[in-house]
Specification:
globular, two-stranded parallel ribbon, 8 strands
């Protein structure tokens, strides 16, 4: 889209798509006790002290009886990293959503360092342009503009970074951002996921499994996109977007500068789905995770992940069951209790207080009638 020939990527102000953890996770098993939760920093009016923690926890427990987690958190879609966080500890993920104010300055510093490394990598291949937006339609338009610019760049130059993906999996819409896609010397399409490490050591097996699940889910969604399995109707159904709504002036101006003659989100949506299915993009052949040390930028090691679709879909079904309100959240098994040592929620965790209740003892909840969500995008 840039006139100079270099790829330009648009970032949206307050777009609702800022999901840092899609590109970066903390070293979950070896951070300090005070900086190891997976919750994203955010405002909280109920987390300033022990008493308020108890009050908020009581509210959260009462909420379980009246709505599904998707309804309670006002989510229209989930991030890929929401599910991969469940792979580490589902109970921790739930507390992270409920108590975002638990984030510590130490963890914020780690996240900032990781984000800086990712940004430097991204700027190697594309420029960033900030476009002001005011509607959810504009936010998705920016996502679509990035896809429209990246698809031909991948085909012509062989490498792109921060590629948006979205798809319906087990009845929910999943959204994510792939770190990097590039072609190998043999012409295979490779997904490369970068994970930075606080300490100069490779992660333990549990962390590798979580990361492997994450990239497997990226592949599943991306492959469905290029095969035409994701439809505009499905996207509109989940997001409640208005395709006829005119684009905002800033977004429209940038679209026209990029050579796209569009007026509404629906126009852009049509171009994106045609571009994905008619561009001859292949499915992803190789899944690679690269671990590097934050302080020295030293590559610590590389993992090649074998894609096991049946196993991955089984996990997705289990995790989505929680979001749909069919079961209670679960913590780690007693064999993985070591994860609790670095968890911010250890003092309030009801899973621990319950004596490591086996997941086999949890009865699924009755399916609730779906209701329209009125949360923000």
């Amino acid at each position: 889209m840039a006139e100079t020939g270099e790829e330009e990527k648009v970032s949206a102000e307050a777009s609702g798509f800022s999901d840092l953890s899609d590109s970066e996770f903390l070293d979950l098993e070896d951070t300090e006790v005070s900086d190891a939760s997976l919750s994203k920093p955010g405002p909280s009016s109920e987390c300033s002290g022990t008493d308020r923690k108890s009050i908020s926890l009581q509210k959260w427990k009462r909420g379980l009886d009246v709505s599904s987690p998707m309804e309670r958190f006002h989510f229209k879609y989930l991030y890929v990293t929401d599910l991969s966080t469940q792979n580490w500890c589902e109970q921790q993920m739930v507390y992270g959503k409920e108590f975002p104010g638990f984030s510590t300055p130490e963890k914020a510093t780690l996240l900032d360092t990781g984000a800086s490394i990712h940004l430097a990598k991204e700027l190697e291949v594309q420029d960033l342009v900030t476009i002001p937006i005011t509607t959810k339609e504009d936010a998705w338009a920016i996502k679509f503009l990035n896809i429209l610019s990246m698809v031909p760049t991948l085909q012509s130059e062989g490498r792109i970074r921060e590629f948006p993906v979205f798809g319906e999996v087990e009845g929910v819409l999943l959204v994510g951002v792939i770190d990097e896609l590039h072609y190998t010397a043999k012409g295979e399409l490779e997904l490369a996921e970068l994970k930075t490490r606080k300490h100069p050591v490779l992660p333990v097996e549990a962390q590798k499994k979580k990361d492997g699940f994450q990239v497997s889910l990226y592949k599943y969604i991306f492959d469905a996109m290029v095969k035409g399995k994701m439809t505009p109707a499905s996207l509109i159904h989940h997001t409640k977007l208005c395709p006829e709504k005119p684009l905002g002036p800033s977004v429209l101006r940038h679209a026209q500068q990029g050579g796209f003659s569009v007026k509404s989100l629906g126009d852009l949506m049509e171009l994106v789905f045609l571009s994905l299915t008619l561009s001859d993009l292949p499915v992803i052949d190789i899944l690679k995770i690269e671990y590097i040390h934050q302080e020295t930028a030293t590559v610590l090691g590389t993992e090649i992940v074998a894609f096991e679709e049946k196993e991955m879909r089984g996990k997705v079904q289990h995790y989505v069951a929680y979001w749909m309100g069919h079961r209670e959240p679960q913590g780690v098994d007693v064999e993985e209790a070591w994860k609790c040592r670095t968890c911010d929620y250890i003092d309030i965790c009801e899973w621990r207080k319950g004596g490591w209740v086996s997941s086999s003892t949890l009865e699924p909840k009755a399916k609730k009638k779906n209701t329209q969500m009125n949360g923000s995008y």
